[in-house]
Q: What sequence folds into this?
């Protein structure tokens, strides 16, 4: 059983701990991405899980086996956890095969485990090469093969793609995901790249202030963020101040109907509750004819290849981002009108009752 469980984890370096009661559970065989801003404690978490840094309070367990707890510390080499560091960290004087086989017994090497994992990561036949003869992406594949070779229950990856260019990163993400699935290992991927976390993982844990602010599927953290900070961190957003009343909220993008329980028809509608209304840029629709929605001026168009961002200024001076696919709907300087499609979210201000409401255009 390799379900990874972290309960009430407190760990750090100085008097103020970096991790402050962190809870996290990753089911067996799942790939979880740990997403958070620089310095929030992602690497510290991996180091504690790998047994390289002590915890002060809490518990780390793999299945029923406690690995770390006050008074318990299973040494790193006996945890059944493989680590892929940020930049491969291969032994430069050892061949690929020797790097991969480093942690294996002679029997395991004789059984062909090295060739097996090299094939798993797409490097069959590369055993005799030296690390210096490999590209950055290939070196990361070897690092993954080395981590997988002893059949660990858990693989930890610390920003394994950060030194690679965008095209290589995308290719490697797909291959690493497939290799991890095939190995059956539970995996934790540390990243500060939202696209990587959302695109690769089965589960995303958003770290903030030393705890997990939200743990959910990529869809959940993007479409149903636990709070405004998570919403703003995981993807782009268009936000306005709002004060729902009578089951609707007025925004510079028009009147949005507030449909969720807690605001509409609950008796609270008359009580003014200021907060933030949030829509994603892909929900903003542009109408070239200027008939549907609110008047806006296109201030810039950023073409990304697979899609484009259209920057707009509304009549009242608000700036709005819109994401569009396919043919560009407008050019810089065009007068258009904009509206919102689908549902939006309302987050009451911090000093207000904390009930998220879903708003949709009326
Ligand atoms: N060895 C250390 N001694 C003292 N403080 C440290 C040490 N290592 C990390 N820290 C501090 O602990 C905090 C968390 O660091 P950590 O490396 O875990 O963050 P991170 O989320 O992985 O950041 P990044 O995304 O930049 O890699 C930071 O404020 C960092 O300065």
A:
């Amino acid at each position: 059983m390799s379900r990874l469980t972290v309960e009430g984890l407190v760990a750090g370096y100085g008097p103020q701990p970096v991790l402050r009661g962190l809870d996290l559970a990753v089911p067996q065989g799942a790939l979880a991405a740990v997403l958070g801003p620089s310095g929030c404690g992602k690497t510290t978490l991996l180091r504690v899980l790998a047994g390289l840094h002590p915890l002060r309070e809490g518990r780390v367990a793999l299945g029923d086996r406690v690995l770390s707890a006050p008074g318990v510390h299973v040494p790193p080499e006996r945890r059944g956890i493989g680590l892929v560091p940020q930049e491969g960290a291969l032994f430069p004087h050892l061949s690929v095969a020797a790097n991969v086989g480093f942690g294996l017994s002679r029997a395991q090497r004789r059984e062909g485990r090295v060739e097996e994992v090299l094939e798993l990561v797409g490097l069959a036949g590369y055993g005799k090469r030296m690390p210096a003869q490999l590209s950055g992406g290939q070196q990361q594949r070897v690092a993954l093969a080395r981590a997988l070779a002893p059949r660990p229950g858990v693989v930890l990856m610390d920003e394994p793609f950060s030194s690679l260019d965008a095209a290589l990163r995308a290719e490697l993400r797909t291959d690493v995901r497939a290799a991890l699935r095939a190995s059956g290992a539970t995996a934790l991927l540390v990243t500060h790249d939202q696209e990587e976390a959302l695109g690769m993982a089965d589960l995303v844990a958003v770290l903030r202030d030393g705890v997990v602010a939200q743990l959910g599927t990529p869809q959940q953290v993007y479409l149903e963020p636990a709070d405004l900070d998570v919403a703003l961190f995981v993807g782009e957003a268009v936000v306005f101040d709002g004060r729902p009343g009578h089951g609707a909220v007025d925004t510079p993008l028009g009147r949005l109907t507030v449909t969720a329980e807690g605001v509409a028809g609950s008796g609270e509608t008359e009580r003014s509750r200021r907060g933030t209304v949030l829509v994603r840029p892909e929900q903003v629709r542009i109408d070239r004819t200027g008939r549907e929605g609110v008047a806006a001026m296109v201030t810039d168009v950023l073409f990304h290849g697979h899609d484009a961002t259209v920057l707009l200024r509304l009549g009242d001076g608000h700036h709005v981002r819109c994401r569009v696919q396919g043919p560009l709907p407008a050019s810089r300087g065009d007068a258009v009108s904009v509206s919102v499609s689908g549902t939006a979210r309302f987050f009451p201000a911090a000093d207000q009752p904390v009930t998220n409401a879903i708003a949709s255009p009326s």
